[in-house]
Amino acid sequence: MFTLRHTGIAMLLALATSPVAAQDLTGIWRDNTGGRYVVRQAGEEFCWTSDQNVFCGIITGPVIAGSWLDLPTGRFRGNGRMVLQIASPNRLVKLYQTANYTASTWTREGSSDPTPAAQPSAVPRSEPAVDP
């Protein structure tokens, strides 16, 4: 039986195998909640850092798959896996997550992307329980 999970995997594989022009995603980015990210791309390796967390992943076609974790200096103590779509050289869109990551789109600062990041969201981020 072909399940929703199989459909998602098939979609990700289709995206990952579609051709995409070489691009450099290195720069300063903002998410749709107002968060600021410093992004570094070296070939297929992609990482970001913010005041709250770090994310590192591998670029395959127009998809970035990786893991994130919150920093001890931030308010949260979460971690998880995430898949992002490179919608354009100036826009990233979250496709999948294993744990709650509030942001869903990222836009390069100073870009003329036609769909810029939205204003900060009033939706709070859930915080997992942490043992003392």
Number of strands: 8
The rounded Rg comes to 15 Å
Form type: globular
Termini separation comes to 45 Å
Low-confidence stretches: 10-21, 116-132
Instruction: Characterize the biggest β-sheet.
Output: 8 strands, antiparallel, barrel
Side-by-side strand order of the widest sheet? 1-2-3-4-5-6-7-8
- The helical percent reads 10-25%
What portion of residues belong to β-strands? 35-45%
Helical stretch tally: 1
Summed over residues and divided by their number, the pLDDT gives a mean of: 80
Helix-strand makeup class: mainly beta
Order of helices and strands: HEEEEEEEE
Can you give a write-up of this model?
It contains 1 helix and 8 strands. It has an 8-stranded antiparallel barrel. The radius of gyration is 15 Å and the shape is globular. A hairpin with a 2-residue loop joins strand 4 and strand 5 (63-70). By secondary structure, the chain is mainly beta.
